[in-house]
Amino acid sequence: MTTSTLNISQRRKDFPLIAHSALAYLDNAATTQKPFSVIAAERDYYETYNANVHRGVYDISERATQAYEGVRIKVAQFIGADNPLGVIYTRNTTEAINLVARAWGAKHLAAGDEIVITEMEHHSNIVPWQMIAKETGAIIKYVPFSTATASPHWEELPRLLGSKTKLVAFNHVNNSLGTINPVAEIIAAIKKLSGAKILIDGAQGVPHLHVNVQEWDCDFLAFSAHKMLGPTGIGVLYAKEGILKTMDPFLGGGDMIKEVSMERSTWNDIPWRFEAGTPNIAGVVAFGAALDYLNTIGIQAIHEHEFLLTKLALELLGAMDGVTLYGTKNAEGRCGVVSFNVNGVHPHDTGTLLAREDIAIRVGHHCNMPIMRRYGIMGTARASFYLYNTIAEVERLAAALPKIQRLFAPVKSRNGG
Ligand code: PLP
């Protein structure tokens, strides 16, 4: 097998929970581990310049503001945005999508307007649209999911899109199956069929693949720091400046206003109009350190490494009798996410037994209930990789599955199955 260009053994030393643990951490689609540099950045903020941002005229407040706003520029560069003012800090992807549904949807959607999403969305990219559709009378249409290709039936776009379509939202990478949607191609097709705004759920894409919002020409992009080595509690909504200017605030309070009188208030400039209250300054600063770390390694090298792990996992698990794999058969067109079931064994049991072998995976519906329904299952066991995972860890996962099969064999025969 070809080896990756990353120096993995060196990289692993950068992560406290990886360097000093026997655990094979294969739950990166849920959240990633944090390198020392990210933890140090957060600590350094609290220890040396902890102060609130904006309007402080003393040294540490100015330092905090500079750091907070400096990361906005770093985030913009990371996703190829030409203007950092299009970067809004949120708590996570979920909040970023809710922000669009509330602040854009409440203003631009009316009864009979259509929102198009796919059946393979994370619940975070379904539920906010259901909520705003209920309020405004807008209608949701779904691009159906194909189990044969593990992707949406994109060929149905001409049937689904038209003059009533106001917004199309879909994920770059699906979190249960790892399917990579050809975003640029789909956006081009959408633009030919309608003038709808386009939102990309980048929660599983931005951490693993090159993303450039200008090349895509999407209107919105949502993603979470914690899935790309950053801390929890910080996420991003990128939006085109012109669109943000048409949107009223999401939350009201401090920092998002220009003027407040007893009768009315006026709004701050963008992006601060959408960042009410004291923000997660420590989280933003640490997120900046995560971006530095990713930039040093390079997103392409990360993707190539994950590709090798995914290919190996698909080969090893695919060769096993009694193990069902979900998603595309090969690693091309797929990120480092491998969903499977040991036939006849509940995924929760699989996960629990793997935990006993010091292997951490996720089990359940992965907030993708509509896809699970298409496969006729309640859930899967899911292994997901990042830059610090090794071939040996994938081999450990594969070696553990026959043990689970053996453990459950007598139960199966007792039950006649
Ligand atoms: N979208 C996708 C594709 C995801 O995988 C996730 C989380 O797993 C989310 C949205 C929600 O992310 P968060 O929980 O960080 O808001």
What's the quick description here?
The protein is α/β, with parallel strands linked by helices and 417 residues long. The protein has helices spanning 8-12, 16-19, 36-48, 59-78, 93-108, 127-136, 157-160, 183-193, 213-216, 241-244, 281-297, 299-318, 347-356, 369-375, 391-414, and strands at 24-25, 87-90, 114-118, 139-143, 145-146, 151-152, 165-171, 197-201, 220-224, 235-239, 257-260, 265-267, 323-326, 337-342, 359-360, 362-364, 380-384.
Explain the overall architecture.
With 417 residues, this protein is an alpha/beta fold. The chain folds into 2 domains: 8-30 and 298-414, Aspartate Aminotransferase, domain 1; 38-295, Aspartate Aminotransferase, domain 2, CATH 3.40.640. It contains 15 helices and 17 strands. The strands form 5 sheets. The protein has a 7-stranded mixed sheet with strand order 2-10-9-8-7-3-4, sandwiched between helices. Strand 3, helix 6 and strand 4 form a beta-alpha-beta unit. Helix 12 (299-318) runs parallel beside helix 15. The longest helix is centred in the C-terminal third of the chain and has 24 residues, at 391-414. 47% of the residues are buried. The mean pLDDT is 96. Residues 92-94, 122, 124-125, 171, 175, 201, 203-204, 224 line the site of pyridoxal-5'-phosphate.
